[in-house]
Amino acid sequence: MTDGEVDAITFPPHTPAEAWATLMAGNARFVDGKSSHPNQDAARRASLLSTQHPFAVIFGCSDSRLAAEIIFDLGLGDAFVVRTAGHVIDNTVLGSLEYSVEYLEVPLIVVLGHDSCGAVTATEAAVSTGKMPAGFIRDLVERITPSVLTSLRKNKDSDVSDMIEEHVRQTAARLVENSPIIATAVARQRTAVVGLTYRLDDGSADLVYSNGSIA
């Protein structure tokens, strides 16, 4: 059993800094091809029958290549996961994240984006052509449009990768701005909010936003 596995099973993180370190250690194992697959046995399953104490809530894109428990080498009960295309926020998402903070006392909120995001790419195309997609896809695009426009205001030569990073930053900031529950937890240093972009080619997750102490 690796040191990281012992930490995940015996000593669950309780502070934002501990949660951040555990999450990044798991991603490093995944990148190196040395995943330990902690907390995935029958004993762990049995221990979660009546309770859960996840150390992170991960709000990520629904993309099939962005499986949070795999890329951070996590197991059962380690992460509370919420996913929408383009990690678009709505009231249900905010309620889910608030639940994790208020009732599960999760010390770390992660907004997880990734390169080659189809939702952001579709939004960039809509902004550049003026042609909106059909159906409820239009709602996704409308919610991502402010991030794309901000990226273009910062740099008129912005590409989709720049827009994806900007969208992660704006999403993470908006969680704190829109939710008094999350804002209070961050202000009291009970919780930190970070934004990460995942690289499909090497499996690494890079920090592009943080609010709260993770050092």
UniProtKB/TrEMBL annotation:
Record field: catalytic activity: hydrogencarbonate + H(+) = CO2 + H2O
Entry EC number(s): 4.2.1.1
Metal-binding listed as a keyword: yes
Cited SMART domains: Pro_CA
A GO molecular-function annotation: zinc ion binding
Pfam families, alphabetized: Pro_CA (PF00484)
Protein keywords: Lyase, Metal-binding, Zinc
Biological process according to GO: carbon utilization
Protein residues bound to Zn(2+): 61, 63, 114, 117
CC cofactor note: Binds 1 zinc ion per subunit.
Cofactor or coenzyme needed: Zn(2+)
Family: Belongs to the beta-class carbonic anhydrase family.
PANTHER family: CARBONIC ANHYDRASE, CARBONIC ANHYDRASE 2
Stated role: Catalyzes the reversible hydration of carbon dioxide to form bicarbonate.
Full protein name: carbonic anhydrase
Organism: Arthrobacter glacialis
